[in-house]
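Look at one record.

>
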Amino acid sequence: MAAQLSTGEVEALLDRASAATPSTDAIIAVVDVQGRILGVRTESGVVTSDLGFAIDGAVAKARTGAFFANNQAILTSRTVSHISQSTVTQREVQANPSSADVTVAGPGYVA
């Protein structure tokens, strides 16, 4: 099993990815070989109304890269279902940022 990246190593990867492009609207995700999120960075130019879906997409791409780059594991239907799993909850999708109803907001809620 591969060693887990340290917090400093994850920060260094996020810094390098951010510096690799002049754009200011990047969302960068780092995951381990099992697809667990180690770090996510959103830059200042990201449209906040799309943030939840955009982070979900960045994590999905990072997971796909990690799973296909891992030559120690077979690619199974279970792995593929994990790649396609959303990190955005139904409650977040249906939430209205203009609503004062706090029961629709939760972890990861973007206002």
